[in-house]
Write a structure and sequence with these properties.
alpha/beta; Spore Coat Polysaccharide Biosynthesis Protein SpsA, Chain A; 261 residues; 38% helix; seven-stranded mixed beta sheet; two-stranded antiparallel ribbon
């Protein structure tokens, strides 16, 4: 089974559209753990009632923009607490969509044999000698002394948040050694942007994970900004090799994908 960790905070109709999108393009059994990152405690309940595949993460809490670093930790520890086993967990956000069948086949194929995770970008930073290359790495460099203590390394890894994927066994290795109390204290004492792109990648690397990168060409339609419009989505669809897209922020584009892709 594949578990999709999906964080959202508004537009429940948009979340339901994402579930329909998953149903269309993911053929294997899957579960969606919906993380409510907003202040409305009722957000997501209708989706969970409407779709058997969707479970609400009870460890959800309000998050601020580009501060979603705890989501994967909260979702995976809830899955462990519930005794739910799976093959892979995939991190999704409210502006991600699939546009072609084959993602599940990719995860279960020989391409992933011997690999513990897959992601877009897989960069290693040593704050003592490297230069930060993004806003997120700059904030991590600023607070590195505290995060170094949590990680227990002299480096940190960084990837792209959407579609980062881990095997169940690697998640268990990470959680076995995860100091939750220290994580909470460090999180409260620092303000690191895009932390979710660093925590699990760094801990996975620390535990010897072998990472497979998505094709470099995927970066064209899986990026931070600008958001994707219909014309670009149509190009991605016609190319024949792109499995997913990000960011799709417009409900108009999202609904067009549902109808036409």
């Amino acid at each position: 089974m594949i578990v999709f960790s999906l964080v959202a905070h508004q537009d429940e109709a948009g979340v339901m559209a994402q579930i329909e999108n998953l149903r269309k393009f993911i053929r294997r059994p899957f579960m969606v753990v919906l993380y409510n990152g907003g202040s409305n405690p009722h957000f997501g309940k209708l989706t969970a009632l409407s779709y058997n595949e969707v479970k609400l993460c009870p460890y959800s809490r309000p998050l601020s923009y580009r501060r979603t670093g705890r989501v994967l930790y909260d979702v995976t520890r809830w899955l462990r607490d519930e005794g739910i086993k799976y093959d892979f967990i995939v991190y999704l956000e409210s502006d991600t969509m699939f546009i072609r069948k084959g993602f599940d086949k990719y995860l279960y194929s020989s391409k992933m044999k011997g690999y513990d995770c897959t992601a877009q970008h897989w960069s290693k930073y040593n704050p003592k000698k490297d230069d930060p290359g993004s806003p997120g790495t700059k904030t991590m460099f600023k607070h590195w002394k505290k995060w170094k203590k949590f990680f227990g390394t002299n480096y940190f890894m960084k990837t792209s948040n959407p579609f980062q994927t881990y095997r169940y066994e690697m998640i268990q290795k990470i959680l076995d050694k995860f100091d939750g109390d220290l994580f909470e204290r460090t999180l409260a004492a620092t303000d690191v942007e895009s932390l979710g792109e660093m925590v699990f990648p760094t801990l996975a690397a620390k535990h010897g994970a072998k990472a497979r990168l998505y094709p470099k060409s995927f970066r064209r339609f899986n990026r931070w900004k600008p958001e994707l419009g219909k014309s670009e989505v149509n190009k991605a669809k016609k190319k024949g090799k792109y499995l997913f897209i990000h960011p799709v922020k417009s409900s108009r584009v999202r609904n067009w994908v549902l109808r036409n892709v």
